[in-house]
From TrEMBL:
UniProt keyword list: ATP-binding, DNA replication, Nucleotide-binding
Annotated positions binding ATP: 107-111, 256, 268
Protein name (database record): ORC1-type DNA replication protein
Record-level GO BP terms: DNA replication
Organism: Natrialba aegyptia DSM 13077
Native organism taxonomy: Archaea, Methanobacteriati, Methanobacteriota, Stenosarchaea group, Halobacteria
């Protein structure tokens, strides 16, 4: 009886299915595809055999992490030659100069650093000078210990040493020891790229350690540092001891111009299927990016999002109206990143300021915001903070560049008070904060439409 039970069960399923109408059967088939490789939730009709979408040919070309080939790097020839001139000594088994590169985000600092260091290592290796380079994202690895661990683990993997570097439980000194042991066994030279070095706690200790490693006898290899910072005053903040050991050459990267951004985007046109980009899409993206920020990284991101919007809506081409939507979506993503680390109560305060901004008034007194904030707390079932704490949160939001605060004289016998206003687009802020807080998302039935 046990052996026949599955057959009986299957026949029961068939009987039930037979009693359902055809549309229900088709719905079940759509919800439970027989071949997971062709699940219609993820694979559109016509894509079953691995063909690309109508929009995309190679979407990765618009990925922020993709380092393009030398023929796709625009407007940075002089910077490439200058940085190469400072670190080229490693090819000749000599100490490379340390470099600090300044500039706003999206001006090619990371791109040039990685491109030049990759070519340096290729040249050194071809000349039988064993060398390596390590890229460290300091915003993610924001302590000296994390940076040292990242360097050690990257060197272990690149060298094939087989040494297992513990992820936790060690201090920076132990991770440095691992790194130096690997360097001495496998390499004569190393270039370390420290992207957003100003984000590292005890950046001075990190730079002092790496810049003096050979002098202090920790390794026989030559170590060169390329430090990247958005803070133009970073080098001046370093103590005299670090400035002495580093003796850096500094470069400042200027924002890209509209024609340069347009060329950068043109070099990534083959991310799309042929003839998919409507006339004016790349120019519109470049012009808006140059006017707003001169950030090539953001421009590439906007073009990718525009392509995704066209793809998601099953459009045949990418149009300029897709760019309009992409600009807002990209801004929403950036605001979400900014407020990601803030407290749930900070999101409620920001949401409150956004709701108030629906009115004709642009500036609001702290007292008016607090009264509406209490209503917001009631809407989501949260306990309100004190008036002073909300005032502090408003000051923090101002420091984050989402809003701004103005001190206003109240007139005779009215004293001085603060007024606050959003400096980001209200709809962008509202969508970002609603999507970042589950309580607010539920309040808006899952989303805030813009």
């Amino acid at each position: 009886m046990t052996d026949q039970q599955p057959d009986d069960f299957d026949s029961t399923k068939v009987d039930i299915s037979a009693s359902e109408n055809t549309s229900t059967t088709e719905e079940v088939q759509q919800q439970e595809p027989t071949d997971p490789a062709n699940d219609p939730l993820f694979v559109r009709e016509g894509d079953e055999h691995g063909s690309s979408t109508k929009i995309w040919a190679d979407r990765d070309l618009l990925s922020i992490g993709t380092v393009p080939g030398p023929d796709r790097i625009v407007g940075r020839d002089e910077e490439i030659r200058s940085v190469a001139g400072e670190i080229r000594h490693l090819v000749h088994e000599s100490q490379p100069n340390h470099v600090v590169i300044y500039g706003e985000t999206g001006t090619g600092k990371s791109l040039v650093s990685r491109h030049v260091s990759d070519r340096l290592i290729d040249t050194a290796t071809a000349r039988n000078v064993p060398a390596a380079n390590v890229y460290v994202e300091c915003k993610k690895n924001n302590t000296e210990t994390r940076v040292a661990r990242t360097i050690a683990r990257a060197l272990s993997e690149a060298s094939g040493s087989g040494i297992e570097i513990p992820r936790i439980g060690l201090g920076s000194a132990e991770y440095y020891d691992y790194a130096y042991d690997i360097i001495d066994e496998y390499y004569d030279g190393l270039i370390v790229i420290l992207d957003e070095i100003d984000m590292v706690d005890n950046a001075e200790g990190l730079l002092h350690e790496l810049s003096r490693a050979r002098e202090a006898g920790h390794t026989d290899a030559y170590i060169g540092i390329i430090a990247i910072s958005n803070d133009i005053d970073f080098g001046q903040k370093l103590n005299a001891r670090v400035q002495s050991s580093m003796r850096t050459t500094d470069f400042v990267f200027e924002p890209y111009q509209s024609d340069q951004i347009e060329q950068i985007l043109e070099y990534r046109r083959d991310a799309f299927q042929e003839d998919v980009l409507q006339d004016g899409v790349i120019t519109e993206t470049a012009d808006r990016s140059a006017d707003e920020h001169g950030d090539a990284r953001k421009a590439v991101d906007v073009l990718r999002i525009a392509g995704d919007i066209a793809d998601d809506t099953d459009a045949d081409v990418v149009r300029t109206d897709h760019v309009d939507k992409a600009v807002k979506r990209a801004e929403v993503n950036r605001v979400k990143e900014t407020i990601e680390s803030t407290s749930p109560q900070s999101k409620l305060v920001l949401y409150t300021l956004g709701r108030l901004t629906d009115s004709n008034n642009r500036r609001f007194r702290t007292s008016g915001i607090y009264a509406q904030y209490e209503t917001t707390c009631g809407d989501v079932g949260a306990d309100p903070l004190s008036y002073d704490r909300v005032s502090q949160i408003l000051s923090t939001l101002s420091l984050m560049g989402i809003s701004e605060s103005h001190q206003v004289g109240g007139g005779h016998k009215q004293g001085v008070y603060l007024e606050h206003q959003l400096i980001k687009d209200k709809d962008v802020v509202m969508k970002a904060v609603v999507e970042s807080d589950e309580r607010l998302s539920e309040l808006h039935n899952g989303s805030y439409e813009i």
